[in-house]
Amino acid sequence: MKKIAVVILNWNGVSLLEQFLPSIIAYSPEATIYIADNASTDTSIEFIKNTYPEVQIVINKANYGFAQGYNEALQHIDAQIYALVNSDIEVTKNWLQPILETFEKEPKTAIIQPKILDFKKKNYFEYAGAAGGFIDKYGYPYCRGRIFDTLEEDLSQYNDNRTIFWASGACFFIRSQVYKELAGFDADFFAHQEEIDLCWRAINKGHIIKYNYQSVVYHVGGATLQQGNPRKTYLNFRNSLLMLTKNLPKEKLYLVLFTRMVLDGVAGIQFIFKGKWKHFTAILKAHFDFYALFSKAYKKREDFQQHKYYSTKSIVYSYYIKAGKVFVK
Q1: pTM
Q2: Domain boundaries along the sequence of the chain
Q3: pLDDT tens-place string over residues 57-85
Q4: Residue 228: what pLDDT?
Q5: What is the CATH class of 4-219?
């Protein structure tokens, strides 16, 4: 058994596997490579068996989405470290070595993210993770190298290995025992922000999350669900509220939730003015579905929540009012 398993979740993504699997196979001699397939109906499985017989395949019974898809598949994979990698990721030579060295030297580090750059514009950071993630007081995620839709050029400004709040699910390394301790991703999320929820729960249990700039990958982004898709809007707004309900300190829970829902209303009005009615209705649906799931999410709260969870009070205020377009250390 190799120490690390690279696990690629796939659903009808044969074209992505054809394009991106070769780099993973070429540059991952330290790992056993798995395809976790969410009951694809295209030729994905046939392609893997015929072209890369050395790649292991785990087939899920249905399309469980990102969260439950990994939960199901990882039950059948034995490794000390899971590398959960999107099917639209191109890796680079020696990308695994810095990660393995960090895990070896830092036993309290449970989760690691590499530097994630844009596949289409390789000198810029990519939206989903960039140089490591943080959240503000109201649960809005942002990254070093990416705040909302502003992406920074990689000028080595984030060439440091440091503690972060959340690691991107696009390329997500986690110790298997920690994944099991946390019972994996929350399946109610289906997709989007489940990795932030898992990281928050890990921090509440005393684990450390790191960013390692020496490991570099390139991400297409939006290959499975485009940024402007109303479904993505729905999942992001609903899952943010679920995440806050589960992880906020109790004394801050209701005030922060109320403020966040007001801010969501403002975002909905902006969608109306832009003529994006499907996105407006996506927010409405997200809120109604959150109300239905609130009790269930509340029951998932742990006994302890860290009081200091945010790095800035309001990234919305900083970005739109103060014009703070880049991460401030």
Answers
A1: 0.95
A2: 4-219, 230-301
A3: 999 999 999 999 999 999 999 999 999 99
A4: 73
A5: alpha beta
Structure tokens at 162: 């440091």
In one-letter notation, the amino acid at residue 110 is A
pLDDT at position 307, please?
A: 82
d(CA 234, CA 232): 5
Amino acid identity at 7:
V
Cα 179 to Cα 172: distance, rounded to the nearest angstrom: 11
Distance CA 262, CA 281 (A): 15
